[in-house]
Amino acid sequence: MSPGRRYGFGFWSVAAVFLTVIAFSTAPGPLYTLYRERDGFSAFVVTIVYAAYSVCAVVSLVLAGHLSDSHGRRRVLVPALLLEIVAAAVFLFWPALPGLIVARSLTGLGIGAFTSTATAWLGELHAGHRPRATNRRAQVVGTASNVWGFGVGTMLSGALAQWAGHPLTVPYLVFVIALVAGLLLVLAAPETRAPMTPRTRYRPQRVSVPHHVRGRYLAAATGMFAVFAALGLFTSVAPSYLSGPLHHPSVALAGAVTFVVFTSAVAAQLATSMIGMRRLLTTGIPILLVGLALLVAAVWLPVPSLAGFLTGGVVAGLGGGILFRGNLSTVVTLAPENARAEALAGLFVAGYLGLTIPVIGLGLLVRYSTPQVGLLVFATALALAVIATAPTLLCRTGAADERTPAPLFSEASAFSLATAVRDGDER
């Protein structure tokens, strides 16, 4: 096989494994209602299981997300993938609550190292396959594999649980097989980053805030917090709303709803790839607010509406996808090159905190009130946070805000950019 074809094979192999790993990370989402029915634990316990994943993902991103720059792509990706396989095995053989927490923690630890490494590797494999082309294909494929994988995982596990029998076994068995196949593909892909000799001294990825633009930076971080919280709703407690107030207990439906929401987020990102930063923000903020309002209205109607809930999810996905890129572009523009890694790390720490704190709060509210009140408070808090920071985020600092298209990056590619800037490596 010629070098160009080997790089092409490697590119699509890593992309497929990327999609598979992200899909596995959301596979338990539609199944939480089945665990609750079997073991009798509350919706709040589901949020704790979900939070274990988010916390471990943050830890892994900061401690290991940059290691492949000095150790090589495969040397980091293979252990991360093995962690995912072990997590799937824990789901299979230890289905009690402690096992769920351990499995979700292992999944988060693997995801943090995997996503940043896979995105960087995709960019380098693309360059080897098409050396004269721009990096747009790698950006589009990386974003689609990452964000769309969240929806694919829930849809697949929900469908398998609904129609294949053994709902708490078959989905994980399928993912074990897919992850092992992915490991073989990764081992066959060409390495693009030789280990550094001598190796640099280890340090975690630094997290910092640019002092001279702290107001806009914190506004962007707050916006990212809200986006992750809104989208995280659909990979955590949304199935409880479908089976509770909306009276639709189908796990296949729960997976399909999440798939549609994340598909809308991907479509929004791709459709707005050439839009300037300020226009992204002015478009994404109101769309996200409308989506949150529709979600609340759907469960507060005299007869709760599944169609309204789904519509709200799609609109929130569109707004979240657009606002994600607007916030990311804001930080990339604000941060000086020698501090961009630290600024981006802080931005995504804020995002993953958005996956954790609001969802735990929602779980507590539902435990001591009703699902309707919980969602109302949750959505209101996110809306107020976005509205409060919007004036600072939208303040004009120059014509560049209007002209510069926002980069098409997922959270993993942002960390890849960060480490590339830090090491002076133009990918």
From TrEMBL:
UniProtKB keywords: Cell membrane, Membrane, Transmembrane, Transmembrane helix, Transport
Membrane topology: Multi-pass membrane protein
Localization per Swiss-Prot or TrEMBL: Cell membrane
Keyword Transmembrane helix carried by entry: yes
Superkingdom of the source species: Bacteria
Domain Major facilitator superfamily (MFS) profile residues, every copy: 9-397
Chief localization: membrane
Residues of the signal peptide: none
Pfam name, any one: MFS_1
TM stretches of this protein: 7-29, 41-64, 76-95, 101-123, 144-164, 170-189, 217-238, 250-268, 280-300, 306-324, 344-366, 372-394
Descriptive protein name: MFS transporter
Biological source species: Pseudonocardia alaniniphila
